[in-house]
Specification:
By secondary structure, the chain is of the alpha+beta class. The protein is built from nine helices and twelve strands. The chain has an eight-stranded mixed beta sheet. A four-stranded antiparallel beta sheet has the order 1-2-3-4, sandwiched between helices.
């Protein structure tokens, strides 16, 4: 049975289309334990490719510099994944396999795609975290204070610092003032911690994302000129204490597997492996 590209649709202009995609994402999440599209795609990309058979949605893809696509769990093992891959394959093709799905490994091998990046999801239970001990780790340098992000005041300074802190990261380092706004709408400033010097300058940040009973260290960054000074450790401790105070019982985060300094920090706090995402590149 063949699936065909029925249309490229705009998620922002058609609520019924967005609802169909949401249902497909929910079914995939329930089966795979992992969402098929990352948050940046859902926030910033407006066009989605729908693949249908006899009017029924069997899969969807989001394209761009990096592709993500999903097949409805009820329609798998029928060749639709390969049909979608062929439809979106380009000479510079790169695609995420969230959860390092076995079917993605098979397709990657069949089409000569190599593993280019490995993104780990780590998790940490907070029931045993002593909130006071975590807060006691907050002072690695004289004059350091930790407070929350001020929308409309800290925006430009944070974007500039984030670009420096993640200069080699293709997604995080590319955030602009415009793309910061939808992220703030999803992850409020009250959960966005900043480390400041005595003049109020931003030295680092720990942005938290809360969903149900899971508190994500959404992004943790430090001024490269202050790397190794303990600011990252202080921010992480403050972030975990913040989650603990809200009654959150488990924390997660995403980190590149080859980011050795970050991995050492997270392992020191007790984070362990949970899932793996792989970026395949042609």
């Amino acid at each position: 049975m063949n699936a065909h590209l029925s249309r490229s649709v705009n998620l922002r202009s058609d609520a019924s289309v967005a609802a169909r995609l949401d249902r497909l994402i929910s079914r995939a999440l329930e089966t795979d334990g992992q969402p098929p599209f990352n948050e940046a795609s859902l926030l910033e990309k407006t066009e989605v490719l729908f693949f249908e058979r006899d009017g029924e949605l069997v899969g969807a893809a989001m394209t761009g510099d990096e592709v993500e696509f999903v097949v409805d769990p009820a329609e798998r093992r029928r060749g639709y994944g390969e049909q979608i891959l062929r439809a979106v394959l380009t000479p510079t093709f790169a695609a995420w396999a969230h959860g390092d799905h076995p079917a993605a490994r098979v397709l990657a091998g069949r089409y000569g795609l190599r593993r280019d990046r490995t993104l780990l999801q780590l998790r940490l239970g907070l029931d045993g975290l002593d909130q006071r001990e975590a807060l006691d780790q907050r002072g690695p340098a004289g004059g350091l204070t930790i407070d929350t992000f001020r929308p409309g005041v800290d925006d430009a300074a944070w974007v500039a610092l984030n670009a420096r802190a993640f200069a080699g990261h293709p997604e995080q380092g590319a955030i602009t003032l415009a793309t910061l706004q939808p992220r703030l709408a999803e992850n409020p400033a009250e959960h966005f911690l900043l480390a400041r010097d005595t003049d109020g300058g931003i030295l680092g940040y720990c942005w938290l994302k809360i969903a149900d009973d899971l508190g994500e260290i959404y992004v943790l960054g430090v001024d490269p000129d202050r790397a190794g000074s303990g600011i990252g450790r202080a921010l992480l401790a403050a972030g975990l204490a913040h989650l603990k105070a809200l009654g959150i019982r488990e924390s997660n985060l995403y980190v590149e597997a080859d980011n050795e300094p970050a991995m050492r920090l997270y392992r020191a706090f007790g984070y362990t492996d949970h899932t793996v995402d792989v970026l395949y590149r042609r």
